[in-house]
Design brief:
It contains 34 helices and 19 strands. With about 750 residues, it is α/β, with parallel strands linked by helices. A nine-stranded mixed beta sheet has the order 5-6-7-2-1-8-9-12-13. Strands 16-15-14-17-18-19 form a six-stranded parallel beta sheet, sandwiched between helices. It has a two-stranded antiparallel sheet with strand order 3-4. Strand 14, helix 21 and strand 15 form a beta-alpha-beta unit. Helix 2 crosses helix 5. The longest helix has 28 residues. The protein binds pyridoxal-5'-phosphate.
């Protein structure tokens, strides 16, 4: 027992801990963490990184900070002695809702790894009051509600640092909020979040509606506000500009304070542009350097040397372009600079397809990034190859030296130590604690995972840990959603944003098929619990139809006593980091079934693997690297290759109706969508629209992969049922090989190849 710590905590709480409410203890712990992390702030020498991102999906912070500061075990013990449970206190903390999916979670993992590796690197983003949205499924369809997370005592503290920003010719004041980022036995960095004092939360009504024209009241209410109308699109530009203008002013002020004369900015700062949302930082920095008397050509060179760009997607609709008229309205001060950049780019290449402003007057943000930064990276090996060979081929020919790959990673502090303490302890017992700082040490587990040398006792312990995690998930779901899971079943999980390219609809068709098989008397080798977690963008009609179909099928199955012995379909409401931390340790089979070539990397795939699930996946994103590392026996791969898919798109001859008509299983499953069982529970409009989409368009080629998916998933279920120890042994191979996917490795590569921090 740490008596000092106990005294400090009691002092902070202002009374004996046993007499405190969970809320009071939470506040005392928040203050304790602040003091301890403050003590780990060290001055920056040499170059510092600024990671600018529209999203930071940081998750709850209390436990993570306690672990990183080395206080977790002591605090838990002190609280237990006072009759309090740390996990109850965690429930008091609202999850900061500052991100959407993988891209935002990546930014959060990167901040953790920077601080852990002792590298000076701060985040820059926005302080959204209501985050993305809170998903409500109570009516059998998704509806959206505000997701408030800002409380009187929030991790993000206001400062008196402000910057003036011109929005559509009108000055506003951006205020800086600071949030400590602790590293595991490392330094403390900062997440800088900007906001306006004039935001008015009360203008939100009927879910997430609000007047988008009143920019000073609404600018930071939500992440990714609906952009299906012009006001929404303009609002996104307002948001982006507030972030980059205040961010750029902060960067220049800090660098000057540390001795930069701005001509040498690249020696003091590295700026990583996370996807295209922060791209306007390029013209904004050039503008600010111009105000400091630096000529355009030199400013372009300084900015190019300082900035680097990460591409996250090859989906055409996600490569942002803005009509110049929008930019002229919101950021008239930038348009002359963007025009000069367009002229400079055109002087370098005659290829019209690489222009910053195209013939139709649209500004291509990614093009500006590639021309005027020194590095463009993809986020997994396959993704970077596709960028070089296909999507960005012209740019690759012009600037081969700028292109590089940085395969994504995850922080093992959150995605192993915090979310799976039992597995962490088991691993530590086998190979010692070194893997916590050096994830490559997980390979020391390999002898235990080798069929020749595996120890049955150890495998049984691992199986018990999985069983306990499944029970814990079931208990949590019983409490939060009133759902009881069959813990004897295989847990099959697809948790990620809802998007057609991720193909939740393929899984849906499988489950319909399984249901019909059970009804026909063909029962599987083991019961299956199939769990989904996914938010759909509010204006994404088909994605919402897929959610509705899954919810409806879930009811059809649950209402059928025969089928529900074998099959359970559960949809987790409001999938977020907190839910992910419960789901992932409980998973047996990880669904990573995107259409090959479409998932840039994925990071969910890495979290599941690390926590002892086997992957059922396509050769897409980082699945390719997982397959290379664990070998074909330890992963279930199926489906068309990225080459075949790209070819099919190029040929333009894919006709889903032909597949529908040729495969009776497929036809039966698709027809079921609008059959009497589904219509009795669900809405015809949504179900019929989804069916028509699958037969008439199926842009993400679900139907050609259906049969391969059926076969491969059947194999996984049979292996799980008939060789449980072999299954566990293969999960251990996955755990042992997961070290490569530590974001510490990713960040070390960014630093080595792009940033050169501290030098
Ligand atoms: C990791 C994570 C994601 C990303 O999942 P993918 O399967 O890579 O798309 C999305 N949301 C949350 C909450 C996550 O933790």
């Amino acid at each position: 027992m740490n008596a000092n710590l106990k005294n400090t905590l009691t002092e902070l709480a202002g009374k004996p801990l046993a007499g405190c409410t969970d809320q009071e203890i939470y506040l005392a712990l928040l203050e304790l963490v602040r003091r301890e992390s403050d003590a780990r702030r060290t001055p920056v020498r040499g170059k510092k990184l600024y990671y600018i991102s529209a999203e930071f999906l940081i998750g709850k912070l209390l436990s993570n900070n306690l672990i990183n500061l080395g206080l977790y075990d002591d605090v838990r013990e002190i609280l237990a002695e006072a009759g309090k449970s740390l996990s109850d206190i965690e429930e008091v903390e609202p999850e900061p809702s500052l991100g959407n999916g993988g891209l935002g979670r990546l930014a959060a993992c990167f901040l953790d790894s920077l601080a852990t590796l002792g590298l000076p690197g701060d985040g820059i983003g926005l302080r959204y009051h209501f985050g993305l949205f809170k998903q409500d499924l109570s009516a059998g369809v998704q509806s959206e509600q505000p997701d408030p997370w800002l409380t009187a005592n929030s991790w993000a503290e206001p400062t008196d640092v402000t910057f003036p920003v011109q929005l559509a010719g009108k000055p506003v004041t951006a205020r800086l909020y600071r949030l400590d980022v602790t590293g595991y036995e490392g330094r403390t960095n900062t997440l800088n979040l900007f906001d306006l004092d004039t935001i008015d939360e009360s203008i939100v009504h009927d879910g997430i509606r609000f007047d988008k024209d009143d920019v000073e009241k609404c600018l930071t209410l939500f992440l990714y506000p609906d952009d299906s109308d012009e006001a929404g699109r303009l609002l996104r530009i307002y948001q982006q500009y507030l972030m980059v203008s205040a961010g750029a002013q902060l960067i220049l002020a800090e660098c000057k304070e540390r001795g930069s004369d701005l001509h040498d900015l690249a020696k003091y700062a590295a700026i990583q542009i996370n996807d295209t949302h922060p791209s306007m930082v390029i013209p904004e920095l050039i503008r600010l350097l111009g105000e400091e008397g630096i000529e355009f050509d030199e400013a372009v060179q300084i900015v190019t040397d300082t900035c680097a760009y990460t591409n996250h997607t090859i989906l055409a609709e996600a490569l942002e372009t803005w009509p110049r008229g929008y930019l002229e309205k919101v950021v008239p001060q930038l348009m002359p600079i963007i025009e000069q950049l367009d002229a400079a780019a055109r002087a370098r290449t005659g290829n019209e397809g690489l222009a910053v402003i195209d013939g139709g007057g649209n500004v291509h943000m990614a093009h500006m990034d590639i021309h005027f930064t020194h590095s463009t990276n993809g986020v997994a090996a396959l993704h970077t190859e596709i960028l070089k060979n296909t999507e960005l081929h012209g740019f690759y020919e012009l600037y081969p030296e700028k292109f590089n790959n940085k395969t994504n990673g995850i922080t093992f502090r959150r995605w192993l130590l915090e979310c799976n303490p039992a597995l962490t302890a088991e691993i530590e017992g086998l190979i010692g604690p070194g893997f916590k700082k050096d994830a490559a040490e997980l390979e020391k587990l390999l002898p235990y995972a080798d069929a020749a040398t595996a120890d049955i006792n150890i495998l049984q312990q691992l199986a018990q840990i999985k069983a306990k995690n499944k029970k814990a998930l079931s208990d949590w779901l019983a409490r939060t959603q009133g759902v009881q899971l069959n813990c004897e079943a295989m847990f099959d999980i697809q948790a990620k944003r809802l998007h057609e390219y991720k193909r939740q609809q393929l899984n849906l068709l499988y489950l319909i098929h399984q249901y019909l098989e059970v009804k026909a008397g063909h029962t599987p080798a083991v019961p299956l619990v199939s769990i989904f977690g996914a938010k759909a963008a509010p204006a994404y009609t088909i994605a919402k139809d897929i959610i509705h179909a899954l919810l409806t099928l879930s009811r059809v199955i649950a209402a059928d006593p025969e089928a529900s012995q074998w099959l359970q379909l559960v949809f987790i409401e409001n999938y977020n980091v907190t839910a992910a931390e419960k789901l992932i340790p409980a998973c047996d089979l990880s669904e990573q079934i995107s259409l090959a070539s479409k998932e840039a990397s994925g990071t969910g795939n890495m979290k599941f693997m690390l926590n002892g699930a086997l992957t059922l996946g396509t050769m897409d994103g980082a699945n390719v690297e997982i397959a290379d590392l664990v070998g074909g026996d330890n992963i279930y791969i199926f489906g068309a290759s990225s080459g075949q898919v790209i070819h099919r798109y190029a040929a333009g001859d894919y006709n889903p109706r032909e597949w529908y008509e040729a495969d009776p299983n497929l036809r039966r499953a698709i027809d079921f969508l609008t059959g009497p069982e589904m219509l009795a529970e669900g809405r015809e409009e949504n179900l019929a629209r989804l069916k028509n989409e699958l037969i008439g368009k199926d842009w993400f080629q679900t139907l050609p992969d259906f049969n391969a998916y059926l076969v491969r998933k059947g194999q996984a279920v049979a292996d799980y049922a008939f060789d449980p120890l072999g299954w566990t042994r293969r999960t251990l191979v996955n755990i042992a090989k997961a070290g490569y996917f530590s974001s510490d490795r990713t960040i070390a590569e960014y630093d080595r190849d792009i940033w050169h921090l501290g030098e």
